[in-house]
Write a structure and sequence with these properties.
The complex is a heterodimer of chains A (448) and B (655). With 448 residues, chain A is of the alpha/beta class. Chain A is built from 17 helices and 15 strands. Chain A is globular. Chain B contains 28 helices and eight strands. Classes of the chains: A alpha/beta (448), B mainly alpha (655). Chain B: One of its GO terms (molecular function) is branched-chain amino acid transmembrane transporter activity.
Chain lengths: 448, 655
């Protein structure tokens, strides 16, 4: 098992400079963190469940076995024809504050796979319209208006930290499906359906592990002081305090390069656990600061900080023993998850330059889940109301390469749009990420 | 490393009298190229039309990559001088400033286009300097900071020595003192300037590479903005002294770090003040101090400068054009589809803001880079007055415009004392300070999450932009913008025809002569600032209603620079120039023609605007509107030679 995990290439967000992006990545913590490396995806079919004789990179559709999520729905292995069905995607494609083109790249790969090998939706191809928010509320609104003008059937999520446009989509009855829920709107508006716990899920998973497994009595939470991140940190604080845990809150500015000061502040109270709400370029200085301060507290970092480049850059001694969260299917030891394998094959064929371990995993999952819902609606596939209704009725519905989802608005207390509230914890042991838990239902944990 | 950047600015100013606003952006390009070279072995070329990358070498060592990057920087510096600033060596300050703004826009956009990631580094930035920390007064200070400061000091000393004791240095100083005498002495100011530009660009590139290797961060916006503190340091050194510029650079860096620490830990700092904004506002204060202490403009070079001012013709038949324009605008609002309607609205609002630059810079000669910041003040005022104080339309925008006027007059006070390039630097500092302190304040503007603007209503009529489905953007809002845009040029064209307009032009031509003729130069300038700020404020208020959600990024400093730049491109002294600037604005009509936001065509819009700006600064100082007007005049004069087709009306229609 440990070898399997070791092979995993975690988030490859080795870029972007601000703490804000650290915050954004935190929101996305662990969402795509646990994909198999691409080499496992090209191992062919023999002996692997779901792989038929024709299963290879040239014909990915032949790899859809009954053990995959897609295998549970009917599909025709032909290319789609006819008028395209417009699906939107709102994402932060570019901008000085961070860019996440891997999400749209994964979406495009999913759409190409659906169109070329799954017969599209009712034989019609999907046309993906990607809009860049340029990291601004106004950009988010502009994207939503663009989607409405183009009369898209639904919009899939990328990253939109502001979510102003998501509210407008909701006002216009447009379903907003998946992506990385990094705004309060994406986690709460009635037409949004999310397959990740976002920031709330990540922090609560840490709190759960710290209290249940490590019996922590005092916890410091470091977090970017920004809207939903602050909200997630406060939610976690409330839950911990109800459990009798002493909590120290250490907010730090959205734009900062100084991670030493907040970590020093967190260490000073000598807590049993420190939850570090940073990622990306914030990871390395945080790891190093924590090492320099020689804290004995258990350190929790987001899955984003488990990227091999980050671990390598921070150094083995600084990262040893650190915990991370993930939201991916955890395969049994010695096996490869069928969905993960299929995902890798699709990427190898349709987006060969995209790192399968990137955050694109989440976008891919979202598009496949949307496709499966549309496919199940038959002639009503392009009816927005029918689609919304179908998602709302979903109970323990299979999710591509993720935990099943239930969109009755009750899965995650206070965040009705979050349909999946399961997280898992892994630990870095001598350079290997070792699973420490199965699925943790953080929604139920928050409700306690 | 601010010190090294400041030295580069001093060098280029000494060499060619140019304050290069693109100095740090070019340094950022070199740094991006260096780290890409280290990672992939690819040399990334910064010229549109040429291949983006050339694979040079496997994975070069730090030393090899640094050598190649230094060579690249030298070539880039040489090209910048040869193709941009050499043709402008005798041009008026405005043309040179605009060319450097064009270079800035182009460089920033090329970084985004060539390196991806939206202008942020998507490669790993390795350590180049020694790691580890030393403890000073119980505070751990990384060693690399000391090494960095040491490198800057050594660079300053070496350069100081070169310019004091070598023939090259003495020649450069001689050419800076008196270009004509230098030529007579057998020196080649051109060659000297070219070498200095190469040195400055190399310095800038190496400085940004080292900064990035320490901070592990590299993005085009924040790196380009380093030009503001670097300018403050260079100004404190009078744009002449390497030593003072270096010391000032070191001092500013240390003061900023100390201020950041103080503002983070101190309880004395009011909550509404953004902690990170306090250090960013410091350079503006230092710029003001430098201006006050010096009491005069920057030392000018002993080169002949053209005293050219773009022509500022009186608009003929303003009422007729207003009526026609309004009718056309309203018709378009009622007939265009959503995307085009929105593009037209964006263009019209941009035109109103550009009009403020026409008045202030085109007619009065005051180079202000703070107009968009003033628009931003008005926009956030509208948002907060409407949503928090519940002050209804039209009172909230009116109050906001008054606030903008007050802010504009305040920003205009440095203009009483300085002009030209110095004023441009001072207003850039002011714009940066407004952004750092006011716009980034969560209490004042909502911070990066922004603030929403309620929809305007008048006597029960919805004048807002928001609408469901195809209704967006609502025509009612568009018509309101059409009416405002129709009235604004009418008002300013009347001012232009009035004695006030004549006083403005007199001040633009020669302040001393104007004062001798009995014109109160101070009040004339301040009135111009007030009028321009009213226009910018009106545009800002409309922006608040158009966007419905405002955040500081809408008014970032670089967009402010682009506003002046596009107005120059359109025609800085003509009302028609503002209309053209509006059409060229991002998200406006040109963007829509190019296929809309996010299209392949619009990707290159900004980079092409930068190139066009440089071309216009060199070849057509009257802008596109001036070019069109000249073309019309030329055609008419040809037609005039044919008696049968003699035109009845030979007057120029400016708008």
């Amino acid at each position: 098992m440990s070898n399997q995990i070791q092979q995993r290439r975690y988030w490859a967000w080795s870029r972007r400079g601000s703490a804000l992006i650290a915050g954004i990545a935190l929101l996305a913590a662990g969402l795509g963190a646990c994909s198999e490396s691409s080499e496992t995806g090209t191992t062919g079919s023999s002996g692997v469940p779901g792989g038929g004789d024709d299963c290879n990179k040239g014909s990915v559709v032949a790899c859809i076995g009954d053990d995959t999520t897609l295998g549970k729905i009917a599909h025709s292995p032909v290319a789609a024809k006819g008028d395209p069905i417009l699906i939107g995607m709102i994402n932060q494609e570019a901008g000085a504050a961070g860019a996440f083109p891997e999400l749209s790249a994964a979406d495009r790969a999913a759409v190409a796979f659906i169109n070329n090998e799954l017969g599209g939706v009712n034989g019609r191809p999907i046309q993906l319209e990607v809009c860049d928010t340029k990291f601004s509320p106004a950009g988010s609104i502009a994207c939503a208006q663009q989607m409405i003008e183009k009369k898209v059937v639904a919009v899939t999520g990328g990253i939109d930290v502001f979510g102003d446009g998501i509210k407008i989509l909701s006002d216009n009855g447009v379903p907003f499906v998946g992506g990385i829920p990094v705004s309060t709107a994406s986690a709460s508006v009635p037409t949004s359906f999310q397959f990740s716990g976002g920031i709330w899920g990540a922090l609560l998973a840490f709190a759960h592990y710290a209290t249940n497994n490590l019996q922590a009595k005092s916890v410091s939470i470091l977090y970017t002081d920004f809207g939903p991140i602050t909200d997630g940190a406060n939610t976690t604080k409330d839950v911990l305090e109800k459990l009798g845990v002493k909590v120290q809150m250490v907010p730090f500015p959205v734009i900062t390069t100084d991670y030493l000061t907040p970590i020093t502040q967190a260490v000073q109270s000598n807590p049993d656990a420190i939850i570090v709400g940073t990622a990306d370029t914030g990871c390395v200085p945080s790891f190093r600061a924590a090492e320099e301060l020689k804290t004995k507290a258990a350190l929790f970092f987001t899955g984003a900080c488990a990227a091999p480049k980050i671990l390598e850059s921070a150094g083995a001694s600084a990262t040893e023993g650190a915990y991370f969260n993930i939201e991916q299917i955890l395969p049994k030891p010695g096996t490869v998850d069928p969905d993960t394998r299929l995902y890798n094959l699709v990427l190898a064929k349709y987006a060969p330059t995209l790192d399968p371990a990137s955050a694109g995993t989440v976008a891919f999952r979202s598009t496949m889940n949307l496709y499966m819902q549309m496919a199940s609606l038959g002639s009503k596939a392009t009816d927005r109301s029918a689609l919304i209704s179908s998602f709302r009725k979903a109970v323990d519905h299979p999710s591509f390469n993720g935990h099943s989802y239930t969109c009755d608005g009750k899965d995650f207390p206070g965040l009705p749009a979050i349909c999946t509230s399961e997280e898992a914890i892994v630990q870095n042991v001598k350079g290997t990420l070792v699973p420490r838990t199965g699925w943790i239902d953080v929604g139920a944990f928050a409700a306690r | 490393m601010l010190a090294a950047l400041a030295i580069g600015l001093v060098l280029t100013y000494r060499a060619s009298g140019v304050i290069n606003f693109a100095h740090c952006a070019v340094g950022a390009y070199i740094a991006f190229a260096f780290f890409t070279l280290r990672q992939d072995g690819d040399l990334v070329l910064p010229i549109l039309g040429l291949p983006a990358r050339i694979h040079l070498i496997g994975r070069p060592t730090v030393f090899t990559a640094l050598l190649i990057s230094i060579a690249l920087a030298a070539v880039v510096g040489l090209m910048i001088y040869t193709f941009v600033f050499r043709p402008l060596r005798t041009a008026p300050p405005l043309a040179r400033i605009v060319a450097s703004l064009g270079l800035l826009l182009y460089t920033q956009e090329m970084i985004r286009l060539r390196f991806g990631g939206g202008g942020s580094a998507i490669f790993s930035i390795g350590d180049l300097l020694p790691q580890g920390a030393v403890h000073l007064l119980d505070v751990a200070v990384p060693i690399n900071r000391f090494v960095l400061a040491g490198i800057a000091v050594v660079a300053s000393l070496v350069l100081g020595g070169i310019y004091r004791w070598t023939k090259f240095g003495l020649s450069t100083r001689a050419a800076a003192e008196n270009e004509r005498a230098a030529v007579l002495a057998g020196l080649s100011p051109d060659r000297l300037a070219a070498v200095n530009w190469m040195i400055a660009t190399v310095l800038s590139g190496v400085a940004v590479i080292l900064i990035a290797s320490v901070t592990k961060q590299l993005d085009v916006v924040s790196t380009s903005l380093l030009v503001v503190p670097a300018l403050a340091a260079a100004l404190l050194g009078g744009m002449a002294s390497f030593t003072i510029a270096t010391l000032a650079g070191l001092m500013i860096g240390m003061l900023q770090a100390a201020l950041l620490h103080f503002s983070t830990v101190s309880t004395a700092v009011p909550n509404w003040l953004p902690r990170a904004g306090i250090p960013e506002a410091l350079p503006f204060i230092l710029i003001l101090i430098a201006i006050t202490l010096r009491g005069r403009a920057l030392p000018t070079r002993g080169a002949l400068e053209e005293r050219f001012h773009p022509s500022a013709p009186i608009a003929l038949h303003p009422i007729r054009w207003t009526v026609i324009g309004t009718a056309v605008g309203v018709s378009l609002m009622l007939t265009l589809s959503g995307a085009w309607r929105l593009a037209l609205i964006v263009s019209m609002i941009s035109a109103i803001i550009a009009l403020s630059s026409v008045v202030l810079t085109g007619w009065v000669g005051q180079i202000s880079l703070a107009q968009l910041a003033i628009a931003g003040v008005s926009a956030f005022m509208v948002a907060r007055l409407s949503s928090d104080a519940h002050i209804p339309f039209p009172w909230s925008p009116l109050l906001a415009v008054f606030a903008a006027v007050a802010m504009g007059v305040l920003a205009g006070f440095p203009a009483v004392r300085v002009r030209g390039t110095t004023l441009a630097v001072a207003t850039l500092g002011a714009a940066t300070a407004i952004q750092a302190i006011a716009f980034n304040s969560e209490a004042l503007t909502g911070g990066i999450a922004g603030t929403s603007t309620p929809q305007p209503r008048l006597f029960g009529v919805n004048l807002g932009i928001a609408g469901l489905g195809n209704e967006y953007p609502r025509a009612g809002f568009g018509i309101m913008v059409v009416i405002v845009l129709a009235l604004a040029p009418l008002a300013v064209s009347n001012l232009r025809r009035s004695p006030t307009g004549l006083r403005w032009l007199a001040v633009r031509s020669n302040e001393r002569a104007a004062a001798a003729a009995g014109i109160d130069v101070t009040s004339t300038k301040l009135l111009a600032f007030a009028v321009a700020s009213a226009l910018a404020g009106t545009g800002g208020a409309l922006t608040a209603y158009q966007l419905t959600a405002l955040s500081p990024d809408v008014f970032i400093v670089f967009l402010a620079l682009a506003t002046l730049a596009l107005t120059y491109l359109g025609g800085i002294a003509r009302i028609a120039g503002a209309f053209i600037a509006g059409a060229l604005a991002s998200g406006g009509i040109l963007t829509q023609i190019l296929g809309g936001n996010g299209s392949v065509g619009s990707k290159y819009q900004t980079a092409m605007s930068g190139v066009l700006l440089i071309v216009v600064a060199i070849a057509q100082p009257n802008g596109i509107a001036g070019g069109v007007s000249a073309l019309k005049t030329s055609v008419r004069s040809r037609v005039k030679t044919r008696p049968a087709t003699r035109p009845k009306n030979r007057s120029e229609v400016a708008s």
